[in-house]
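pls read this protein:
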Amino acid sequence: MTEKDTDQQADYVEPNKAFERDTRYIETRITRDGADGFPVEAGRYRLVVAYACPWANRAIIVRRLLGLEDAISMGVCGPTHDKRSWTFDLDPGEVDPVLGIPRLQDAYFKRFPDYPKGITVPAIVDIPSGAVVTNDFPQITIDFSLEWTDFHRDGAPQLYPEDLRPEIDEVNAVVYKDVNNGVYRCGFAGSQESYEAAYDQLFSRLDWLSDRLANQRYLVGDTITEADVRLFTTLARFDAVYHGHFKCNREKLSEMPVLWAYARDLFQTPGFGDSTNFEQIKAHYYKVHRDVNPSGIVPKGPDLANWHTPHGRDALGGRPFGDGTPPVPLG
């Protein structure tokens, strides 16, 4: 793993201001009809991710649940990066073996030479041209479910079923605002006032989720959906990062009985825990956010063995994969 120089790290906290995420993503889509110029085609595209990033982690999980591994290859960036770009530190020669580039920014600049915004993961790159297609992470996983159906594995679950879409969208919207992005609004707050407002909103929503999940196994319906994937990647990082590093410390996840059992249930489901890398998660947050953690020291804890303890959520019923089947275990 390549260490990035401290003076090459971006600043994430703007003094005296609340954190506001730039959500102006590249909205080009890969669709069956190729309306945006990029038709669904097996082997043409490369999903670039980092296991450290919760937004990218969603795409990793959905790709695996749907069995798209043979249709969409995956490049993995290292957990640390500098202010310029995510980099392919984990590959031989620190170059992606398919795209032939050391930095994800090269794919962005190939399409947009003056690209002014952040170089983010997940991103999908058109292999023939070497140019980025999209980094619109909420749409990427929806399109995996709806546009790539010809390449789903036998037994792939319905993660975005038509009859549940309005409720899934409603849940996703509040979870994104208050939880997925809420932890960042705590961690990157530039004032006490903005931090406390984000903190209160976060834990109010976690209490709401605990109530919702007390008597139902999954967030929407009786199977795993897109909503569960989106919540899981934040919960997985809660005790390891957000509780201390981002000051989300009213309670640990492991002290919230319903959400802790729910998170363990998903973690122990094929596709979730085997797509989660706690070491890379910790390395990213504690080494990259130097204005939050100037020393760059990565904590040894927490003990992760408890993720494998019984959760008891199956007593609530539900069928994780509906009429489908789990993905084949890795390795």
